[in-house]
Amino acid sequence: MDELENADALDYETIQEQRNDELSALLDSRNMRALKQRMEEMNEFDVAEFLSEIPDNRMPMVFRLLSKETASDVFANFDVPDQERIINSMTDSELAGIIEELYLDDAVDMMEELPANVVKRVMRAATPQTRALINQYLNYPEDSAGSIMTAEFVDLKKYMSVKESFARIRRIGEDKETIYICFVISSHRKLEGIVTVKDLLLADDDTIIEDLMDRNVIFATTTEDQESVSEKFSDYDLMALPVVDTEGRLVGIVTVDDIIDVMEQETTEDFELMAAMTPSDKPYARSGILEIWKNRIPWLMFLMLSATFTSMILTHFESMLAVQAALIAFIPTLMGTGGNSGAQASTAVIRSLSLGDTEPRDALRVAWKELRIALLCGLSLACVNFVKMLILDGMIMKNEGITIPVALTVSLAILFIVIFAKVVGSMLPIAAEKIGVDPAVMANPLISTVTDTVSLLIYIYIAKLILRI
Amino acid sequence: MDELENADALDYETIQEQRNDELSALLDSRNMRALKQRMEEMNEFDVAEFLSEIPDNRMPMVFRLLSKETASDVFANFDVPDQERIINSMTDSELAGIIEELYLDDAVDMMEELPANVVKRVMRAATPQTRALINQYLNYPEDSAGSIMTAEFVDLKKYMSVKESFARIRRIGEDKETIYICFVISSHRKLEGIVTVKDLLLADDDTIIEDLMDRNVIFATTTEDQESVSEKFSDYDLMALPVVDTEGRLVGIVTVDDIIDVMEQETTEDFELMAAMTPSDKPYARSGILEIWKNRIPWLMFLMLSATFTSMILTHFESMLAVQAALIAFIPTLMGTGGNSGAQASTAVIRSLSLGDTEPRDALRVAWKELRIALLCGLSLACVNFVKMLILDGMIMKNEGITIPVALTVSLAILFIVIFAKVVGSMLPIAAEKIGVDPAVMANPLISTVTDTVSLLIYIYIAKLILRI
């Protein structure tokens, strides 16, 4: 049973696989007692993973083998469809047992995703206090500190001694999300300070909490955005952050494991926005095709219709382009280069804004920086393109339309398009941040649509100047 | 001094601002004693932020006010230019003091970024043991568990009692990155289990660690990629993860605060790859324009040259397009729609792969899903485009080239292009993962270049069929 005894040159993934094989063998041979014992020793995430891979009809039966404590921990690690399956296989009193054992934030998360009829059943099974708390938490704005916090923390009073504090931690600590950070509150539940178990361990038994606590508490308010909460964890290397209401009363805490989930969720959201999709809380693998269609079609439609400008420009200059048909062949090159240049600048700025390295007030500095980068990139691209057009398109491919003035036209257009794309690409996210829109929207798809139109105009204008058409 | 006493309806940001104003006033009035006292009470991140905003010539002087312990904590929170500035203003013995107080992982991080001559001076100032450890850590592969771990952990032996363990924690705990997770090792330093301070607090004084420890330890190996390490933190909700060498000996631990930095770094890397930039460790705001140019130009150049295919196709079909000049006007629309559709699919799959929701073996399932989504999206776009072309371009703009067959050609092309883009866009990241390339490379810029070429071919083929040209 000792995982590490044979761990020479093994990694945890191999151990996991071996263990899953062993568990499946126990299940197949119906050796339920050994299976139960083995699962109880495992990490609850691994148990959840194992259970979610066994056939649906046997899964609830295996789940029932678990002790009450393990069961609720495993349950919290399930994804929503597995949670639903388990709930549907349970009696009301079994369900009540699980709900009361769950941490409040896990229960609230689950409620936000379960279908309404299942939520109703769960709420009926919960005790009145739990039900009231869940309802209260469900009322905080989505993605606020209030919506991700939990109520299971250790609170102390400042007149307690270290010895009394340890006694309290031992008494109530079992069910708390963390016992290592304790929150010192007044009789009106106002947050007065924090004290860590490390402070307590290193202090004398008779020391009074007031002399030990850190008054300089970093905290969040219930309505604060979860992105700002996660920045605090990253800046201050926190394990837990207290959440206070408008009166400064401690109403909950956020723990670092929840912040890791928040960070993943926020990153996914940015990715989706940057690829012109409506963000969704549901993982891709679990979303239906109609749902995905609904998230993708609005932007696709908008961007397709926006491209009407480019067709109008092309139609308008049809006769001119007919004179110099060779010019048409380079339209995709110009649009692609413009889009890519703009996307680089906008992505760099979007990320820098979200990490807090760049602020909206840096707009001028950023524009100046991108202007110089664009000059460097634009000149390199223009020179290479000029030579490439004359040698590859002109001499090797024997395209007679490729003259030096034509190559010059395309190359100069590249230079100006890159400059335009990079400066505008870097400014749009900053402008978005200023007016309170998520800067991630100003990414490749939108930038490309903007640069496409302008690229064409730049191209045609330069062609008129150089080729006199 | 009590931050929270006046915290009614305040958020932490307002408190911060007020405090920074107060500190600046103390500095201006040269009230150094009050300034020192105030800084000592503050969180070290806030002190670092404050110091990095005061003028360069005064900053080292204010930094010297700090006590040795606070100084090293603040130092660890500086960014590299500020660290360099401080090092240059210090005597060797002051420097030695800071280095010995730093956590090893912070010291190693700093060494990786400081200029060579400063690194040399720091190494000279360190004690031989610290120097040897730093050198050992610097030798682990970049972005491996070994390169982000630290050596400051609490180790216990399994024959110890709870009482003895607490005595050891009290003795050596002061300088450890975490004391809450203790690592049980054999006389050969092999990792045998872990025990938390919570377990210890809830147990009797005479209990033996062996009976208390969790043998089912989740661990990483020194060469394991940091992305896999951060997945373990997210899956198992860990606070700290032991890192073992190939013989199963405990060589270090990774703590959750470092993982938050890793997650930010990995996300930035994905963003950069997805926007066709070479990833860089250096924040945008601190990178020079030549550096940024070097990271951006290779992809831009490659993508520009790849667009040669589209110009060849257009040149080849020049005469055919001349017959139906109206077709040219819709090339940007088709390319844009293809690129955006492909980018949506590839981004969704890239993110799903990186969260572990989708595995390479799901390739067929993903292709089937994207095919159906593409049908829905393609049909919606094609219908809207058909109507739009006839009404807006044809009737309102009075473009005589827009006939029903032309509108049908463009609309059918949209349908097939969206299908191609979505299926290929979803498969390329999976293929990349399979051959060990970062899937993030298969994002918008590369997908667009692939779909641009194929979109043109689809368009021309459909035009030939319908318009018989």
What is the second-level CATH architecture of the largest domain in chain A?
Answer: Orthogonal Bundle
Largest sheet of chain A: 3 strands, mixed
The quaternary organization reads as homodimer
Rg of chain A over CA atoms, rounded to whole Å, is 30 Å
| Lateral arrangement of strands in the main beta sheet of chain A | 1-2-3
The sequence of SSEs of chain A as H and E is HHHHHHHHHHHEHEEHHEHEEHHHHHHHH
- What fraction of the residues of chain A are assigned to beta strands by DSSP? 5-15%
Number of domains of chain A: 3
Low-confidence stretches of chain A: none
Q: How far do the termini of chain A sit from each other?
A: 83 Å
Q: What is the typical, i.e. mean, pLDDT of chain A? A: 89
Helix content of chain A: 55-70%
CATH H-tier superfamily of the largest domain in chain A: SLC41 divalent cation transporters, integral membrane domain
Number of strands of chain A: 6
